[in-house]
What does this fold into?
Amino acid sequence: MPRVTVAVLAYYGGGLLTEAIASALAQTYTDIKVVVYDDCSPYDLKKEVDAFHDPRLYYVRNEKNLGVWGNTNKAMDLCDTEYLHTFHGDDVMFSWMLDECVSIMDDNSDIGIVSTSCWFLEGSYPHPTKRSERAGVLYRTKEYIWVYCKGMYGGSGPLVSSTVLRKDILHRYNLRYGLNSSMADFNFFFEANHFGVSIYLSKIPLVAYRKYSFHRNSQTDPIKKICGQLRNFTSIRDFLMSLDASYVVSNTIKEQHVIASVVNLVVDGVTRESLNECRCIFAEEGLNISDETFLEAVSTGAISRFVRPLGTGKMSLGDYLTERQSCLERGLQLSLEKELQYFRMYIMPRRIAKAMPFAAI
It folds into this structure.
């Protein structure tokens, strides 16, 4: 019996699954079996699987579409090996990924989940030719949750499609992915860590996520995206409260996240009208930001848009003045005090003589 099951969660065809399977079968850790879970795909995925003629490779087709979390749960239910790696059929594993993850878990019996960072790429990927030195962070019981709650929102947690876990934690704590939550992956790790599962997060990318047109998030409108993040934040807060009230993510942290989002919106070039629309949606979500705080965020974003690139030499003084006027024409309020502050931070250290005359603009 192999020690590791690689569960390839598959839906898209077009050769993407072929490369995902090939990367799994090419692992330097060989005590594995690879199971492709076809989530009722309209593509002929079985043809891609059968082309390998590898006895370690199996194919399972769902009778109906289960969705990504339902398909993951099925892989968990059918797993009969010591370790399970859930892996999306449009990504690529580096050849030493399982070797790295399994060795970490073999050396540390208290670690129940190992996850890695990743590369986001389009097209073909430059496969690393040299194995990196091990580097990562270990979160003991509840530590992962507390780090997250301190403000490391988004990107701080392990990623579901590059995760290796011990099968026994699934049964010991009755862990599965929630089907009705957009944050099911985060909730899974929160629940595991709450019950005592230690999580190791590798800082070394061991998997490549491919970006392609039909897999991009359809929510390209920046305001809708920010408001979606706010709803996700609320969803996570409610889930953590259901585990332990002491985990409550305070409204202050939530507001800080929203303010940072407003800054990014302005940097991306949205108008004041769009910002007002965004603010109304925030209010509907139960988060009212004061006029003073909102205007401060707007001013910070606008000034970041042109002062930082000027300080790094990526923008000329003429471009700076043009961009500054553009922000004013879009109805964005600028704070002279904030502008001077940014000049001192980004211009004066490198261009003291030149920055001083323009600081009063």
